[in-house]
Amino acid sequence: MSLTHLTIKAEPLTRASFAPYGDVLAPTPGRIDNNTLLDGGYARMSDPVPGTRRDDFDVLDYWGDIATISRDTMRLGYLRTKKRPLAFSWFERHLKGTQSFMPLGGADSVICVGLASNPALGTLPDLGTVKAFRMDGSAGINLHPGTWHWTPFPVSDAADFIILVREAVVDDDLHFIDLEARMNTRIEIVL
After folding, report:
1. Domain definitions of the chain by residue range
2. What top-level class would CATH report for the domain 4-26+68-190?
3. Of 43, 56, 58, 138, most Cβ neighbours within 10 A?
């Protein structure tokens, strides 16, 4: 039987389109600044901030609640993805926790994902739910537990990421599926 080639057109990364797979790590409408922290009583101040120095104190905007990550012990990793053809035949997932990819240096990349499916080991992804998202380097992603994915593809020579994943992921939660062997399928991405 000949190999099936599933072609997926990459689409822009937006909160709405990525929501079934995870969270987009970028600012939301609900920002707060240091003055909001002061006025709302959120900050415990050792020294009061006089009104004449408020501008000097207000040095940031903050967006909380952009994603919920796993509550287990997490670890940061540094990932450099290699330039390669926009095609693959492997998927992985992590059932016990989230995984975040935060781009560094603004490099464009593409990530391919599929909806979380039955958590039983050996369960195959539903290829009808597979999408590819173009990440412009200005926002990261946080994958929901169980979301099928493959390592991001850099659009140029390489793309660097900080990843956040459960510390024990390699010991008890790294599931790979060989799409060619199990589903006679190879996925190809079109920009």
Report:
1. 4-26+68-190, 31-63
2. mainly beta
3. 58
